[in-house]
């Protein structure tokens, strides 16, 4: 589905409209254009066989779409845990820096810049581009500031600072790795094959107006289900997935404390 990746930037309503309309048009066109070549009889036995065939393919497609929706929901929960873990680790580091007093001023500015860089530069593009170079530079500067502060700290505070910094680094790496979370390509291949089989049953029906409308409505419903799975496929892409709001919220809550040293941006 990489060819459809630009659709993640579209509003979800437009994505639904595209999938529904496209699927409905394909089903109607398959019936109108191909039925005259197939010349399906209008007998009761033939229509019964056609409906059974369509129903069997539809049942298989609906089943796989339902499974993919559940899988996508599970991936969304995993992504939420990654974000929650990172925000929690950064919050823990802020509390430790607070205990440093004036010695923590350099680390405050670096952490403020790092948090702002995640929210504005890295988070939105990481599903496509991975780690952002400016955020990586901020992370390294923060690490150096924490090491310098730990060298001057006493007792367990120094150890806690280093451990919390390691937790922040690990949480970021986990998030960057999780940015590639998506349904396996085999699922999408199976969905495409089942959709083609379903379209192949359209010429089995006489191209009457009410029959074409029925096929279009049926396929439009399938398109809506596919659109839903598509939008939920990658938890860190699109409008139905996660935003950088937790990082922005943390920065808003502790921004005054972190920016107390008024360090100029890098």
Describe the protein in words:
- The chain has helices spanning 12-38, 44-100, 105-122, 126-129, 133-152, 156-178, 185-200, 209-232, 245-258.
- The protein has 266 residues and is mainly alpha-helical.
- Helix 3 runs antiparallel to helix 5 (133-152).
- The longest helix is centred in the N-terminal third of the chain and has 57 residues, at 44-100.
- The two termini are 38 Å apart.
Structural topology:
Layout: H1 12-38, H2 44-100, H3 105-122, H4 126-129, H5 133-152, H6 156-178, H7 185-200, H8 209-232, H9 245-258
Helix pairs in contact: 1-8, 2-3, 2-6, 2-7, 2-8, 2-9, 3-5, 3-9, 5-6
How far apart are the first and last residues' alpha carbons, in Å?
Answer: 38 Å
**H/E topology pattern:** HHHHHHHHH
Number of strands: 0
Average pLDDT over all residues: 89
The helix content is: over 70%
Task: Supply the helix-strand structural class.
Answer: mainly alpha
C-alpha Rg (nearest Å): 27 Å
Oligomer: single chain
Overall, the morphology is rod-shaped
Key traits:
266 residues; disordered C terminus
Task: Describe what is shown at a glance.
By secondary structure, the protein is mainly α.
